[in-house]
Amino acid sequence: MSPVPRHLLPETSAERADGSLEIGGVSTLDLAAQYGTPLFVYDEQHLRSRCREAVTSFGADRVVYATKAFLCRAMARLVHEEGLMLDVATSGELFVALSAGVPASRCVLHGNNKSLDELRFAITSGVHHINVDSFDELDRLDTLHREGLPVPRVALRITPGVEAHTHEYIATGQDDSKFGFNLANGDAARAVSRADRSPSVELMGLHCHIGSNVFAVSSFARAAEVMAAFAAPYDLPELTLGGGLGVAYVEGEQAPSISEWATVLLDACRSLGVRSAITVEPGRSIVANAAVTLYSVGTIKDIPGVRSYLSVDGGMSDNPRPVLYGSGYEAFLPRAWGADRVRAVRVVGKHCESGDILINDAMVPADTAVGDVLAMPVTGAYGYSMSSNYNMVGKPAVVFVRDGKSRLVLRRQTHEDLVALDID
Ligand code: LLP
Predict the structure, then answer these.
(1) Contact present, 277 and 259 (Cβ < 8 Å)
(2) Residues with Cβ < 8 Å from 52, sequence gap 6 or more?
(3) Bond prior to 256 in cis (omega within 30° of 0)
(4) What residue numbers bound the domain in which 201 lies?
(5) Which of 7, 303, 358, 383 to pair with 43, CA 20 to 30 A apart?
């Protein structure tokens, strides 16, 4: 198998004279030596390029970064500096954004089961608006209005009945979904008329999100069509068409770019005569390809006639996606990233279960050995953000690299962190 395809790597990836990989002008081998492994390495220029592509394509104030894909204070500041707003799905995500210095007026609250406390926190902080997901949530907003809280701007999340072609766990637009007001059974229309008449909310828009890691732009165009038809009689200022743009994870995959996605969505809306401002909420397409994870190879076990197991020092705790969704990834050696990959191995983690698999059928260079640094690209989205402390494995460190410099943005968890919540 040929070397790892270039388009899976962060934008500033380059080969050094010795054949090794640098990102952001920094040697990935030096990063592994300095910060230890596992290590998430984010290319700051790549992050900023994707943010700029989104803002240029959709317009200022029309892009809301879905922080669930990857959030820490440095990331919140970066997207805010680039002019994006922040989609926060819980009070925890809102707290991190605010503690990074992002004004609440640049945050939008999501969630299918927001508690009274979460809603109160969002309203008193002054979030830009709340995407309301259910009649129960409208009841809670009535309660908060009776408490004397300011009237929040809201959009209603509509389930458009559009099936996105993706893994069933991350498809959200179909009728059988826990999210949003169902369009087909009339709930969506009932929710609009209730919100429109309610003194507790100021209705400013409609919202939908059909799923995540969607490659078929036709699915987005279909959702735009359904939403445009539903929204037309209400003539509200804003229509949000969600996130969900897929990215290439493995050789042979090609995903539409953010600007191609924008062309499809905006053309569809234009031809449907939509007058509302179109907003989107990309997460994965901003961050996924911006990062690689660096691991150290700890053991290689050959079982003749069966397979070889290559164990690294992380696993399902820093990347649960292969276990959850059967997601595919590539692996390569940053010391020789142009090397052909001819040796078949199963890349596994260090957790106490056989299901702890990172790559089922990986190809690595023939001379891959214990002690090597192994890199997995396209780990910038839903890796660190879904990481756990299973087996009391500490969370990895995260560095941003740019212009020949690295900066630690999340330190590695220590053993002490693992008992920080214990009372006695
Ligand atoms: N907006 C809403 C309302 C969402 O629920 C999501 C993702 C997004 C935007 C951002 O979608 P993106 O552009 O990142 O596809 N853990 C899964 C993905 C779950 C996505 C949840 N919602 C994974 O690792 O594939």
Answers:
(1) no
(2) 82
(3) no
(4) 44-284
(5) 358
CA atoms of 101 and 79, how far apart (whole Å): 12
Output the ligand 1 site: residues, CB below 6 A.
66, 68-69, 87, 110, 170, 209, 212-213, 242-245, 281-285, 321, 325, 382, 386
Which of the 8 DSSP states describes residue 306? T
Distance 147 CA to ligand 1 centre (A): 33
Residue 390: give its domain's CATH number: 2.40.37.10
Report CA 129 to chain centroid distance, whole Å.
21
Q: 58-106: per-residue pLDDT in tens?
A: 998 999 999 999 999 999 999 999 999 999 999 999 999 999 999 999 9
- Scanning the structure block, which residue is given the tokens 């939509």? 274
Q: CB under 8 Å to 205, separation ≥6 — which residues?
A: 129, 155, 156, 236, 237, 238, 239, 240, 276, 279
**What are the backbone angles phi and psi of residue 140, rounded to the nearest 5°?**
-65, -35
- Where is the domain boundary, 284, 314, 348? 284
Count of alpha carbons within 13 angstroms of residue 313, beta-carbon side: 22
The first and second tokens of residue 353, run together, are: 């279960």
**What is the number of domains present in the chain?**
2
Interval 26-62: pLDDT, tens: 999 999 999 999 999 999 999 999 999 999 999 989 9
CA of 50 to the centre of ligand 1 (A): 17
